[in-house]
């Protein structure tokens, strides 16, 4: 164990040196441009275009060989502020890595509130740097405040040595070590309300060998990393329980295929084998959900459906396309809570047990 810990520390020191060297190379290029009397600029992949991604077997996101780049110029009024903020953030990150300390994005914002203006600006600049350096955020010693929750048959140790038991309910941490679990499957739940309902109905007691996790809507990075790590380490099935609407499907796709803004890290954030357990649009008619429990589609919903159906991973999923067609043709959507129209505990006592036992997923 001692030898293993020493080896881990050595690997970490080596990686820190690589990060420092990569940042130094960026600054060196800036200084060389200045010495030549040229306006410095930074170059990175355009992380906001789906066209820069390719999907191997339509599931695993990979950078396209002919992907487009963007240039952030120091002599352009449109990008000079972004250029300066990136250099400032590189300075902050360099000091963190050099001192082997960590800081949350929130800490960085409050220490430089007047400079960055908003937390969103800090978040975007950090994502820019991760994309430019091709280095994961955690390796830049920048952490995020978790919003996700996890519960079930799982214990793990945080990087600071804290032992976490998820038997009841725990926040999703930044880094997970020494994972211990005998869970047979992992259930991703879209919303906090559904997550809490499962706990209140003692779903974990009825299905002891299970882990449930929620990102409370669109998932944060820590929740996505946790799902990926549990899938890799435990080698168990991963199911998704989301609303039967465009945004529920979108959230599931973020876990399974990644988001366009973080596509440069998709290979380490996604779980291609995620299965859509529910709420399936086809379930609404099969279960005879009362129309009063359904919600009419909005113009925004129609636009979202049209946009999603053009994505390569959706185009290669005929069963998913069929479910999306059902939403569009019926002109109605439904939240998971619509199942309470059948019975208050229908979700935990009937719907999920039957789905898991008889294989009602796609």
From TrEMBL:
<dbReference type="InterPro" id="IPR034136">
    <property type="entry name" value="TOPRIM_Topo6A/Spo11"/>
</dbReference>
<dbReference type="GO" id="GO:0003918">
    <property type="term" value="F:DNA topoisomerase type II (double strand cut, ATP-hydrolyzing) activity"/>
</dbReference>
<keyword id="KW-0238">DNA-binding</keyword>
<dbReference type="InterPro" id="IPR036078">
    <property type="entry name" value="Spo11/TopoVI_A_sf"/>
</dbReference>
<feature type="active site" description="O-(5'-phospho-DNA)-tyrosine intermediate">
    <location>
        <position position="110"/>
    </location>
</feature>
<dbReference type="GO" id="GO:0007131">
    <property type="term" value="P:reciprocal meiotic recombination"/>
</dbReference>
<dbReference type="GO" id="GO:0005524">
    <property type="term" value="F:ATP binding"/>
</dbReference>
<feature type="domain" description="Topoisomerase 6 subunit A/Spo11 TOPRIM">
    <location>
        <begin position="185"/>
        <end position="356"/>
    </location>
</feature>
<dbReference type="GO" id="GO:0042138">
    <property type="term" value="P:meiotic DNA double-strand break formation"/>
</dbReference>
<dbReference type="GO" id="GO:0000228">
    <property type="term" value="C:nuclear chromosome"/>
</dbReference>
<dbReference type="InterPro" id="IPR002815">
    <property type="entry name" value="Spo11/TopoVI_A"/>
</dbReference>
<protein>
    <recommendedName>
        <fullName>DNA topoisomerase (ATP-hydrolyzing)</fullName>
        <ecNumber>5.6.2.2</ecNumber>
    </recommendedName>
</protein>
<dbReference type="Pfam" id="PF21180">
    <property type="entry name" value="TOP6A-Spo11_Toprim"/>
</dbReference>
<dbReference type="InterPro" id="IPR013048">
    <property type="entry name" value="Meiotic_Spo11"/>
</dbReference>
<dbReference type="Pfam" id="PF04406">
    <property type="entry name" value="TP6A_N"/>
</dbReference>
<dbReference type="InterPro" id="IPR013049">
    <property type="entry name" value="Spo11/TopoVI_A_N"/>
</dbReference>
<feature type="domain" description="Spo11/DNA topoisomerase VI subunit A N-terminal">
    <location>
        <begin position="82"/>
        <end position="142"/>
    </location>
</feature>
<keyword id="KW-0539">Nucleus</keyword>
<keyword id="KW-0799">Topoisomerase</keyword>
<keyword id="KW-0413">Isomerase</keyword>
<keyword id="KW-0460">Magnesium</keyword>
<dbReference type="GO" id="GO:0046872">
    <property type="term" value="F:metal ion binding"/>
</dbReference>
<dbReference type="InterPro" id="IPR036388">
    <property type="entry name" value="WH-like_DNA-bd_sf"/>
</dbReference>
<dbReference type="GO" id="GO:0003677">
    <property type="term" value="F:DNA binding"/>
</dbReference>
<comment type="similarity">
    <text>Belongs to the TOP6A family.</text>
</comment>
<keyword id="KW-0479">Metal-binding</keyword>
<dbReference type="GO" id="GO:0000706">
    <property type="term" value="P:meiotic DNA double-strand break processing"/>
</dbReference>
């Amino acid at each position: 164990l001692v030898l293993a810990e020493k080896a881990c520390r050595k690997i970490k020191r080596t990686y820190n040196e690589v990060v420092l060297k990569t940042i130094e190379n960026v600054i060196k290029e800036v200084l060389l441009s200045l010495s030549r009397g040229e306006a410095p600029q930074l170059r990175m992949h355009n992380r906001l275009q789906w066209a820069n991604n390719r999907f191997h077997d339509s599931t695993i996101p990979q950078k396209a060989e002919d992907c487009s780049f963007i240039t952030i110029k120091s002599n352009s009024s449109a990008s000079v502020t972004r250029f300066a903020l990136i250099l400032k953030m590189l300075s902050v990150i360099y000091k963190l890595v050099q001192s082997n300390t960590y800081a949350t994005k929130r800490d960085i914002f409050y220490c430089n509130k007047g400079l960055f203006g908003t937390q969103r600006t800090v978040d975007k600049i950090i994502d820019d740097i991760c994309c430019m350096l091709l280095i994961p955020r955690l390796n830049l010693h920048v952490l995020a405040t978790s919003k996700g929750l996890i519960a079930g048959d799982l214990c793990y140790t945080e990087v600071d040595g804290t032992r976490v038991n998820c038997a009841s309910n725990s926040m999703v941490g930044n880094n997970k070590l020494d994972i211990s679990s005998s869970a047979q499957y992992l259930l991703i739940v879209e919303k906090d309300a559904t997550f809490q309902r499962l706990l209140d109905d003692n779903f974990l007691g009825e299905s002891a060998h299970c882990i449930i996790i929620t990102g409370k809507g669109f998932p944060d990075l820590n929740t996505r990393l946790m799902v990926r790590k549990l899938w890799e380490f435990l080698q168990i099935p991963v199911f998704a329980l989301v609303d039967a609407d465009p945004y529920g499907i979108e959230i599931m796709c973020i876990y399974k295929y990644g988001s366009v803004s973080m596509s440069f890290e998709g290979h380490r954030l996604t779980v291609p084998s995620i299965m859509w357990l529910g709420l399936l649009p086809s379930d609404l008619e099969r279960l005879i959900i009362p129309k009063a429990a359904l919600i009419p589609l909005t113009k925004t919903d129609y636009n979202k459906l049209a946009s999603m159906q053009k994505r390569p991973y959706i185009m290669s999923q005929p069963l998913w396309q069929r479910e999306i067609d059902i939403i569009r043709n019926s002109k109605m959507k439904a939240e998971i809570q619509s199942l309470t129209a059948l019975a208050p505990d229908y979700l935990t006592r009937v719907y999920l047990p039957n789905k898991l036992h008889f294989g009602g997923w796609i």
